[in-house]
């Protein structure tokens, strides 16, 4: 999550992208609320997860194929929100202050270790 947070900070702080909420999907969210709470706190944003969140890439590719065949001129965004996920319930979790503070401490240590990682790579390259 550290590298994801660094990228999100670039978007929000340097590029002025406003993030209202994020939609989580993939196996990371199969563990109940745990991943969702961690991600929300790490990214400083509410995270919503649908019942289909644990479905992975092949399912997503099948959705794209169905859109190409049955999209009937709809945008992909409209097709997904109206046809695929129109009736899907989502659970949203907000960032937790205590968890966010702990993650921020971890992130500071992570960033401080990046020069050591770069030095190791440089050494291996010779």
Task: Write structural notes for this entry.
The protein is 60% helix and 9% strand. It is mainly alpha-helical and 126 residues long. The protein has a 3-stranded mixed beta sheet. α2 crosses α5 (97-125). It is globular. The model has no long low-confidence stretch (mean pLDDT 91).
How is the topology of this model organized?
Blueprint: H1 2-14, E1 22-24, H2 33-43, E2 47-50, H3 57-70, H4 76-84, E3 90-93, H5 97-125
Parallel strand pairs: 1-2
Antiparallel strand pairs: 2-3
Tally of separate helices: 5
Derived from helix and strand composition plus strand pairing, the structural class reads mainly alpha
First-residue to last-residue Cα separation: 30 Å
List the secondary-structure elements in sequence, H or E. HEHEHHEH
Neighbour order of strands in the largest sheet = 1-2-3
Shape: globular
User: What percent of residues are in strands?
Assistant: 5-15%
Using the CA coordinates, give the radius of gyration: 18 Å
In the predicted model, the low-confidence regions spanning at least 5 consecutive residues are none
Q: Percent of residues in helical segments?
A: 55-70%
Summarize the structure.
This protein is mainly α and 126 residues long. The protein contains five helices and three strands.
Question: What key phrases describe this protein's structure?
Answer:
126 residues; mainly alpha; three-stranded mixed beta sheet
């Amino acid at each position: 999550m550290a590298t994801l947070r660094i990228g999100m900070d670039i978007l929000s702080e340097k590029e002025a992208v406003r993030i209202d909420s994020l939609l989580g999907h993939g196996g990371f969210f199969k563990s109940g609320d745990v991943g969702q709470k961690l991600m929300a706190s790490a990214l400083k944003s509410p995270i919503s997860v649908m019942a289909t969140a644990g479905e992975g890439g092949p399912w997503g590719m099948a959705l794209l194929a169905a859109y190409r065949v049955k999209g009937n001129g709809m945008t992909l965004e409209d097709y997904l929100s109206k046809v695929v996920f129109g009736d899907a319930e989502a659970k949203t979790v907000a960032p937790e202050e205590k968890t966010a503070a702990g993650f921020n401490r971890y992130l500071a240590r992570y960033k401080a270790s990046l020069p050591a990682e770069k030095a190791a790579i440089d050494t291996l390259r010779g």
